[in-house]
TrEMBL record:
<keyword id="KW-0812">Transmembrane</keyword>
<keyword id="KW-1133">Transmembrane helix</keyword>
<feature type="domain" description="DUF202">
    <location>
        <begin position="1"/>
        <end position="60"/>
    </location>
</feature>
<feature type="transmembrane region" description="Helical">
    <location>
        <begin position="7"/>
        <end position="25"/>
    </location>
</feature>
<dbReference type="InterPro" id="IPR003807">
    <property type="entry name" value="DUF202"/>
</dbReference>
<dbReference type="Pfam" id="PF02656">
    <property type="entry name" value="DUF202"/>
</dbReference>
<protein>
    <submittedName>
        <fullName>DUF202 domain-containing protein</fullName>
    </submittedName>
</protein>
<feature type="transmembrane region" description="Helical">
    <location>
        <begin position="37"/>
        <end position="57"/>
    </location>
</feature>
<keyword id="KW-0472">Membrane</keyword>
Length: 67
């Protein structure tokens, strides 16, 4: 269960960073932060991929030792 919770934490972080990047790009009052919005949009998929790879790695080791 801890593995799933960790993955969900990565997923939540991915969603927050992605939505923050989109919001920065869409809100006209934040035009001076355009570069930050683009950075967040580029960073978000990496966070998701790291979380997914870690989840699969840990799941593989759990099954290896507990099956």
């Amino acid at each position: 269960m801890a593995n799933e919770r960790t993955f969900l934490a990565y997923l939540r972080t991915f969603i927050v960073i992605l939505s923050s990047g989109v919001a920065i790009l869409k809100v006209e009052a934040l035009e001076e932060m355009f570069d930050l919005g683009v950075f967040l949009l580029v960073l978000a998929p990496f966070i998701f991929i790291i979380g997914l790879v870690r989840f699969l790695y840990v799941r593989k080791h759990i099954r290896k030792y507990h099956s």
